[in-house]
Amino acid sequence: MAKILAHCTHGKDDPERAMLPFIVTNVAASAGQEAVVLLTIEGVWLATKGYADGVEKPGFPPLRDTLNSLLQNGGQVWACGTCTKPRGITEADLIEGAKIVTAAYVVEYLAQGGVSTLDF
Q1: Which of 60, 110, 77, 61 is nearest to 8 (CA)?
Q2: Each residue of 46-62: pLDDT tens digit?
Q3: I need a labelling partner for 107 at 20 to 30 A (CA). Which of 36, 50, 80, 119 fits?
Q4: Are the CB atoms for 91 and 99 separated by under 8 Å?
Q5: Could you tell me which residues come within 8 angstroms of residue 111 by beta carbon, excluding any fewer than 6 positions away?
Q6: Domain 3-119 falls in which CATH fold?
Q7: Using an 8 Å Cβ cutoff, are 66 and 46 in contact?
Q8: What is the per-residue pLDDT across 54-85, written as a single tens digit (0 to 9) for each?
Q9: What's the whole-model pTM score?
């Protein structure tokens, strides 16, 4: 089984870069692979309730649909705790299936080995 971690740093500021990590990880999750989207910087907003509803780009499926599909296929959405804190985002603000993680959590995951990473 492959392990895919896609790093997303964008939200509504760049819809294409916001959508691509979810498309890639959704494909991986639907194929039975372990798939995680790590949200940092402005990307952390994508884990909040209602935010993904307004992220669209012609030629791409709506982000909300891809995000929901990723979660239904067993993928994970992690929001960086260092990035959520100054933005006032708490666990209560997150969509179901997303969680706030620490840098130590991400390092531990990567240190397990066998993880392919992508940055958008």
Answers
A1: 77
A2: 999 999 998 999 999 99
A3: 50
A4: yes
A5: none
A6: Hypothetical Protein Ychn; Chain: A, (3.40.1260)
A7: no
A8: 899 999 999 999 999 999 999 999 999 999 99
A9: 0.95
For residue 79 the two structure tokens come to 């929001």
Q: Which two tokens stand for residue 83?
A: 């990035």
DSSP track, the chain: --EEEEEE--STTSHHHHHHHHHHHHHHHHTT-EEEEEE-GGGGGGGBTTGGGG---TTS--HHHHHHHHHHTT-EEEEEHHHHGGGT--GGGBPTTEEEE-HHHHHHHHHTS-EEEEE-
